[in-house]
Each structure stands twice: as C-alpha cells, then as structure tokens.
Amino acid sequence: MMHSMKGKRGLIMGVANDRSIAWGIAKALHEAGAELAFSYQGEAFAKRVEPLAESLGSDILMDVDVTDDASIEAAFGRLGARWPTIDFVVHAIAFSDKSELSGRFLNTTRPNFKHSMDISVYSFIEVARRAYPLMKENGGTMLTLTYQGSNRVVPNYNVMGVAKAALEATTRYLANDLGPDKIRVNAISPGPMKTLAGAAIGGARKTFRHTEDNAPMRANATLEAIGGTAVYLASDAGACTTGEVIRVDGGYHVLGMPQPENL
C-alpha cells in the first residue's frame, strides 16, 4: 500500500508516443491509482498523445511550449482551475539539434547550446516554479529524466551530456529549495532506450547493444522498470528521498570496462 497512488494526481510532460519513457511512467502511475493530466507541444504531438491519454481515462491535455513563459503560465493556470492541488509533475523534456548529436562536441554551436539548455534544463526550473503553488499545501514530487552522459563521456551525446549535468545540479538545488515545503525533487537515469529521442543520437543502436551486452544484468532498462521507479519516488514510500539521481540501467554505471567476453 505504500506504493499506492490512489487519491494522487499530477501532470506528465513529454510523452511523444507509446514508446516514450514518459508514457511508461504515466502507465505505471495510472496502474497505481493516480489521476493524470498531459501536456504536449504542437498539433503533431497532439494527435499522438490524445488517444494515449484517453486510454488512461484522462481528459486534461494542454499544448505547452516550454520556451514560452506565458504558455507555461497558462497551462498551470488551467490545471489549477481543474485541480486546486497536485501531487506530482513528471518533466520528460529535452531537445538538441540532431545534427549536433554526432561527431565532435568541439563543434557545438552557440545557438544550439543555448537552445538545448533552455529546453532541457531551464524548463524544469520554470515548471517547478509554476507547480510549486499547487504543491506547497500538501507537499509533492517533481521528477525529471537524465542519462549517464552527464558524468561520463558518451560518444555523440555531446551537448546533451552538458545539459544533463546541469539538469542534475538543478535537481539538487530545487530539492534544497523545496524540501521545507515537503516537496521532493529527483531525477531518474535510465540506460539507453529505443525511443524517439534516443534515436536522434548518433550510433544509438550500437550504444543500446553495447549496454545490453555488458551491464551486470545483461539487459537494458524497460519502461516498466522505469515506471516502477517513478511510482516509488512519487508515492509515500519515497517520502524521505530527494535530490537523488536514481539509476535504472541494469547496473551499467558501476562498470570500469566491458565484460571479459567483450574485450
């Protein structure tokens, strides 16, 4: 029962399709009893997200541009009019120009660096600021998604590695700011996933296979495992966990080199 989400409700941001990590989290939270609202950006994503939201009994869908403060403000205003309080927000939003997710980090451009940091990092701060008034009365949970490219060099991950490092630092600072209001802030760090976002990174298939072959569990993360981790963090079971990066990668992060058979 500690992992029950009955009576809890919150916003999922960043579902792209039924293979998205955000979708795995949404399904797990729904199965644990939570009520969900969804955000998307633009008409193309609306067509994908709407049937998925409906399948979980959600009728709250909002078009949000996280680079536009007015758009975020309007969305949370609408959410607050429907639900005076919320219990969690899942921020599964990141972006970088695909052309810079291959080759050398040295070739990162200033415009893409700024754009990547704005969408992938600053948006979490802006979302937290808007969600805070809806959580400060009863506490709650804010979750984001990161990847080990934040602290180790992953070929082709490039500027996204720097962005994820900043996102993890942001998670810690927000956790400290919001802790007195019983609001927990954590990041989940899955291994490589076969998602729309993951496919944009150069050499994604090789990275996926390498991790699967060498992780202690000889397996990559599943949507179900990531979803279960999110339920733990958002439920009462995670009441004393904040400022953390929880790795869900089959143990790959503990390795210093590939398994003997793959050397």
Automatic annotation (TrEMBL):
Family under the similarity heading:
Belongs to the short-chain dehydrogenases/reductases (SDR) family. FabI subfamily.
InterPro entries noted in UniProt: Enoyl-ACP_Rdtase_NADH, NAD(P)-bd_dom_sf, SDR_fam
Question: In its keyword annotation, does this UniProt entry include Phosphoprotein?
Answer: no
Q: In which pathway does it act?
A: Lipid metabolism; fatty acid biosynthesis
Provide the E.C. number(s) assigned to this enzyme.
1.3.1.9
Superkingdom to which the source organism belongs? Bacteria
Taxonomy-wise, where does this protein's organism fall, top ranks first? Bacteria, Pseudomonadati, Pseudomonadota, Alphaproteobacteria, Rhodobacterales
Keyword Cell wall biogenesis/degradation present in the record's keywords: the answer is no
Keyword list, A-Z: Fatty acid biosynthesis, Fatty acid metabolism, Lipid biosynthesis, Lipid metabolism, NAD, Oxidoreductase
Q: Name one Pfam family in it.
A: adh_short_C2
Q: Which PANTHER family match?
A: ENOYL-[ACYL-CARRIER-PROTEIN] REDUCTASE, ENOYL-[ACYL-CARRIER-PROTEIN] REDUCTASE [NADH], CHLOROPLASTIC
| Catalyzed reactions per annotation | a 2,3-saturated acyl-[ACP] + NAD(+) = a (2E)-enoyl-[ACP] + NADH + H(+)
Q: Under what name is this protein listed?
A: Enoyl-[acyl-carrier-protein] reductase [NADH]
